[in-house]
Amino acid sequence: AIVFLLCVLLGQILAMYSEQRKKEQEIEQLKVENLQSRCEALANQINPHFFFNSLGGLSSLVREDDKERTLEYVNKLSAVFRYILQSDKKGLVTLDEEFDFLESYRYLLEVRYANKLSFDISIDSKNRKLKLPVLSLLPLIENVVKHNVIDSENRMVVSVFVNEKSEVVVSNPIHKKLEESLSNGIGLTNLKNRFILLMDSHIRIEKTEETFRVYMPLKK
Question: pTM for this one?
Answer without folding.
Answer: 0.76
